[in-house]
User: Fold this.
Amino acid sequence: MRTFVARRLLRINANFYRQFGAEFAASRSALQPGMLRALQALDGCAALLDVGCGNGRFAGALPAPVQYVGVDSSAALLGCATPRAGARLLQLDLMNAAWVLRMRRRFPAIVCFAVLHHVPGARRRLRLLRQLRGLLRPGGVCVLSVWQFVHVPRLRRKICDWQQAGITAAQVDAHDYLLDWQRGGSGLRYAHQFSVPELEQLCTRAGFEIRQTYRSDGATGDMGLYVVLRAAG
Assistant:
């Protein structure tokens, strides 16, 4: 994917969360079943990094002793957070490679829910996953999820023509989509639809061992694709 196209897609999503952050956070107040299931893989961790934490809702599901650090690019989403005492929330641009320098430590556990499908292009996705791998302690666990939407009729109806974003279909990658939003106004979002082999191959290339893959969430029970990872080698 050419750089100017990727930047355009990132700008679309940044504008979306800037304009609709409060409405989006309100629609995601409860934890999805797949996120609660992820807690099993995280059991016993002393600290956790939540990458793309949004309003920090996952912190509330963790046992009190767990040190929680959440990072997100959206000031609007972070502004909706009501984090527990001791939690740290940082606004950092995950597409700026320097964001990892603010961490200054490695973590026994990392989660990255509903983020990777908003990252345009395989090269940028791989870079983010390698950054997560680098922030993970030896033997640590990482759980990430991506949105699955093309099989859901209600969500398929939200798919828009790329011309609405000033982009042509030939300029984006296969399985890239533009979707509309109609809560509190009209907006657009960019998302990539992953297949299981695509996601698993990307995680393997980033240096992870895949321990588990499962589907969960939404009315259909399969609108989230989750992978449980450990650092390879």
Notes: The mean pLDDT is 94. Residues 3-26 form the longest helix (24 residues). Strands lie at 47-51, 67-72, 88-91, 107-113, 136-147, 159-160, 176-181, 187-192, 208-216, 224-231.
